[in-house]
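User: My collaborator sent over this chain with a note saying "see what the structure looks like." That's all I know about it. Can you take a look?
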Amino acid sequence: MKLSVIVPVLNEETFVPLYIESVSRFANEIIIVDGGSTDGTLKHIERLQNLCSIRLFRFQQIGMPYTEDWNESLVRNFLIDQAQGDWIMNLDIDELMDDRFKEVLPQLMGNKEVDIYQFPFVNFWGDPWTIRINSPGDERWSNDITRMWRTNKGIRYRDEKHHCTLEAAEGKSIWSIPRGRSDVFIYHYHYALGRKIKFNDNRRRDVNLLENEGMPDWSYQHSEYEIATAPFQGQHPEVVRRHLKAIGFEPHSN
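Assistant: Without extra context I'll predict from the sequence alone. Here is the result:
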């Protein structure tokens, strides 16, 4: 069986090399939509074309980044329509699979009783050695997340502009589809590497950047809920370990 990995990108030059090297180890194709990158994103994609079958499309995003101006469901459903594999994985550009995923993937895809999979999701917060965890009133961190499904089940994104939701055929809930859970972690590095905070990416004011300017305050405590963190006790994927060593950032290396 074959796996298609789909991902939208916009100015992600930090993550593109890590992502393509990691995903090329287990995917049969990577399908990318670029929203109008002006940094080194496209150059990295072109440079790494030989690692995997990469299909690149352009879809210029308009309006304010990461707001309802963006028609995100349109882009993500376009990606779904391009997939040629038996399974689809919607792995975002700042998300990397644990190195064990390549070994367990054939078994996951071969399970005829399961059509959609969840994975434990680890959110790094401020640096690669701290994770954000759930707290009362803020139960959205380090949960399981749906990231892979069988292609022929009609799963698509609901017509929403931003933070769009997966749904089954005919608008049914994806919870109606036979699902399974893998114990392979997905690591979310958005808040740990590169810029860490993008423009308009602080909508919940969790790092106290009220005007999207300045440096994030990772010790800031929100007035409505506790921002709870814990030390990362696991091991980063191999591509991240090499990246941290290359940039001289390994104070707690495994």
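A starting point for your reply to your collaborator: The chain has a mean pLDDT of 91.
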